[in-house]
Amino acid sequence: MSKQASTVGGRRLAVVIAALVIAVTLVATGCSTSTNGPRNLAGPAWVCRPDQAADPCASSLAATTVTANGTLQAASWPRSPEASKFACFYVHGSDGLTGIGNTSLAVTRVDVSVAVEQGAPLSQVCQVWAPSYRSQTLPTVEKGLAGDQALLRSTSAVAYDSVLPAWQWFLAHTVGKPIILIGDSQGSAILIRLISAKLDHEPSVLGRLLVVILVGGNLQVPAGKTIGATFTKVPLCTASTEARCAIAFSSYPSQPPPDSVFGRPGQGVSLQSGQTARTGQQVACVNPAALSGGAGELDPYLVTATQNPRLPIPGYERLTEPVSTPWVTYPDLYSASCEHGDGATWLQVTSLAGTSRSRPVVNDNHLAGLAGSDTGPAYGYHGYEYSLTLGNLLHDVVAEEAAWQSSH
Q1: pLDDT band at 70 (very low <50, low <70, confident <90, very high)
Q2: What is the mean pLDDT of residues 72-83?
Q3: Burial label, 341 (beta-carbon count in 10 A; 0-12, 13-18, 19+)
Q4: H/E element holding 181?
Q5: Which is higher by pLDDT, 19 or 95?
Q6: What is the C-alpha to C-alpha distance for residues 6 and 10, in angstroms, rounded to an integer?
Q7: Which of 76, 139, 289, 403 is a good FRET partner for 323, with 20 to 30 A between their CA atoms?
Q8: Helix ranges, 29-146 (H)
Q9: What share of the chain is helix, strand, coil (3-state, %, to 5)?
Q10: What's the confidence (pLDDT) of residue 384?
């Protein structure tokens, strides 16, 4: 490969790494302090809500497509013409990277950065509500998953309880709108608890539910079934025309190891939502690229380092991005399918790049050495999976909204 091609490949890899470490590096550079950003002093604290000024979930979505041969093209997003008729409740993952316990309710710059990366794209399919809540910090989660069950239970309860007021506020201020629930990592664990404890027993709210998206939360179902165990009224999705169902998955490049944090029932992040059963159950896997089953190509959208030009990326410092837009997408780069083996169920993500290095290929050691994190094969592609499947998830919601509109 030519030196020029290698350099471009490195720069494009930097795009992917930037999307993952943006929150980490903001903390590392002293940007984790509270901001006077979006919150509602008369009610719950919000990172995003439709009627506030400077809403990070309304930030620019200008994107560039990088094709397999390296051509750059303007990209468009999956978009619903009925977006304003639907309301999303999005709960972010662990973005507090220091200290043991829970974060405060203050909206931080890290919260805003994560909302830009994960919440803003949802504006293409709905009005986005994203609460600020007392999330477990990453050191808390890691210590809890390492064996401190008392810490995990107590801080999980604090996080969950802090989301409930925002949930009630959301329901009261979106009356008449169909609702979509989206969670990533810890956010998925909270939504799993919320659905199990409340929605499963509230017919009026279930009647408004369009779809639930749970990324990296380890939702459990009876082996070979689409409903039961954790949820009793919300089955796994099997078609884009199906309402009141869940899309749930955790991704790996191969079979998760025995100590995996995702993909195996009764361990890892299952414990964040109180799912302790190991026998007779499996972790849910719904392929967002093929809801009815089988394999499908992923449609990734990633934030570029242009969102934060001074971002220190280990090994790629001072590189200039090959695109000027805040977003980049790489079609025909990955495929995915749900797989099951040796007690694990996971979304198998496979590179279609072959031997080419002109576009980035992710790995399962994405945060090693940053903020004290010790990720690796046990975490799989957890740091990438929201972005790798983002276009597919939006396409799924667009189809589900169209089906809802035609039947209501």
Answers
A1: confident
A2: 95
A3: exposed
A4: strand 179-184
A5: 95
A6: 6
A7: 289
A8: 109-114, 138-145
A9: 30, 20, 50
A10: 87
Q: What one-character-per-residue DSSP string does 351-393 give? A: E--TT--SS----S-TTTTSTT---STTTTTTTTHHHHTHHHH
Q: How far is CA 216 from CA 205, 228, 273, 318, 342, in A?
A: 24, 19, 12, 32, 19
d(CA 403, CA 408): 9
CA 342 to each of CA 15, 69, 285, 301: distance values in angstroms, whole numbers, following the listed order: 35, 38, 15, 32
Cα 71 to Cα 68: distance, rounded to the nearest angstrom: 7
DSSP codes joined into one string, 22-42: HHHHHHHTT--SB-S-S--TT
pLDDT tens-digit profile of 314-357? 333 333 457 889 898 989 999 999 999 999 999 999 988 876 66
Kindly state the DSSP code that residue 98 receives in the 8-state scheme.
Answer: S
| pTM assigned to the model | 0.88
| SS3 assignment, position 68 | coil
Instruction: Give the single-character DSSP code of 179.
Output: E
> Do 128 and 118 meet the contact criterion of CB atoms below 8 Å apart?
no
The two tokens of residue 221 are: 């179902």
CA distances from 44 to 38, 75, 164, 198, 403 (A): 11, 36, 9, 19, 33
